[in-house]
Design brief:
Structural class: mainly alpha
Number of strands: 0
Radius of gyration: 21 Å
Shape: globular
Helix content: over 70%
Largest sheet: none
Strand content: under 5%
Number of helices: 13
Order of helices and strands: HHHHHHHHHHHHH
Length: about 375
């Protein structure tokens, strides 16, 4: 399932390059599937797999299974509706996972992540009903934002969250969820409220998240904190653009806002969490290496260029920056594989060094 998630990522990046205007083999067939492959195929499978590992039951793996199946159908058949139907089934099972998990651990972060799963379900159901992606994409964004923020609240329990911390977090969550629903009937109001909610979430990360302490510690803690705080910064940028641009924005403003959230914020959080989550999912160590900063730098620099190209309408720079976005994610994949391979080699050496020695018999 993890391999199929990575396949969805590669296919989604391939489709993204096609949308940027690059001529690639077999890219036109899946160019329109860039969003479904990235959101539901890659991230949906990963998140469902993480929940299945946490729940520890065989049936819970049906959620990432359906998400992976949706990926295969979308890539091989180019059938958006059939793929979306499978992604919708995955979201239903993910919600059922939370129905089991919440009574065991009735905490705010669990409820917030369940709201994220519900948002994913709505977005996938809308895609199945032939609703244009531009009209449903904020439901997908809600899936990712609420899932990530729920995980951040969970990890911040070590700080014993204050009343102010909980109040800001719950208020931002309530506003975001309400804004999603309002956007369905009053887009001008709802989308601006989404911008306010995103800024509120970013403020919470900057003030109350554990990252503000771990950034002082070297190695992996600092790496994670740098990504988290940088991602929060891009959330502020996205929220400000959402407030500043007209609701009837053009494609370039739409591109800038969406990629500030779905690429920069989301992948900053993936970069931060991957060294923690991947080992738990695959059962292999992922040692931290300073080279991890390479894909972080490329991602941030490329998105600065992309947003600038969107704002001043420079098609050439837009394509170059988009290609650099892809390069940053590919660097992340390479770094992850190298780190896991290094961890496996280290474990083998450790086992061989500490393996019990069989004494030789006298006649040997």
């Amino acid at each position: 399932m993890l391999a199929l998630a990575m396949l969805a990522l590669v296919a989604g990046l391939w489709a993204g390059l096609a949308r940027l205007g690059f001529v690639l083999p077999a890219s036109r067939a899946i160019a329109a599937e860039h969003g479904p492959l990235m959101i539901s195929g890659f991230l949906g499978t990963l998140i469902c797999l993480e929940r299945a590992v946490a729940l520890g039951t065989t049936w819970s793996y049906a959620a990432p299974g359906f998400a992976a199946a949706g990926t295969i159908v979308t890539i091989l058949l180019g059938d958006t509706v059939a793929g979306a139907a499978l992604f919708t089934l995955a979201a239903v099972i993910l919600l059922f996972d939370f129905a089991i998990l919440i009574p065991r651990d009735p905490q705010t972060y669990m409820i917030v992540m369940a709201l994220g799963a519900a948002s994913w379900l709505v977005g996938n159901a809308m895609l199945t009903a032939h609703v244009p992606i531009a009209a449903l994409v904020w439901w997908w964004a809600g899936f990712l934002v609420l899932t990530i923020m729920g995980e951040r609240l969970e990890m911040s329990r070590v700080l014993a969250p204050s009343v102010a911390s909980r109040a800001v977090f719950i208020s931002a969550t309530a506003l975001f969820v309400a804004a999603l629903q309002i956007s369905a009937v009053a887009p001008r109001i709802g989308l601006r409220l989404i911008g306010v909610a995103m800024i509120a979430f970013a403020v919470w990360i900057g003030i109350f998240d554990v990252a503000r302490r771990t950034i002082r510690r070297p190695g992996l803690p600092r790496f994670g904190a740098v990504n988290l705080l940088a991602g929060a910064g891009w959330m502020v940028v996205a929220g400000a653009m959402r407030l500043g641009f007209s609701p009837a924005m053009g494609i370039l403003h739409y591109d800038a806002i969406l990629h500030a959230v779905l690429l920069e914020f989301v992948f900053s959080m993936i970069f931060a969490h991957a060294p923690i989550i991947f080992p738990a999912v695959i059962g292999r160590a992922m040692p931290f290496n300073a080279s991890f900063y390479a894909h972080v730098i490329v991602l941030h620099a490329s998105l600065v260029l992309r947003v600038a190209a969107d704002l001043v309408d420079l098609p050439g720079l837009w394509r170059i920056s988009g290609a650099l976005n892809v390069a940053a994610i590919l660097l992340f994949i390479v770094s992850t594989i190298r780190s896991v391979a290094s961890g496996v080699r280290t474990a083998r050496v450790h086992r061989s060094v500490h393996a019990p020695q069989v004494p030789l018999r006298s006649n040997d």
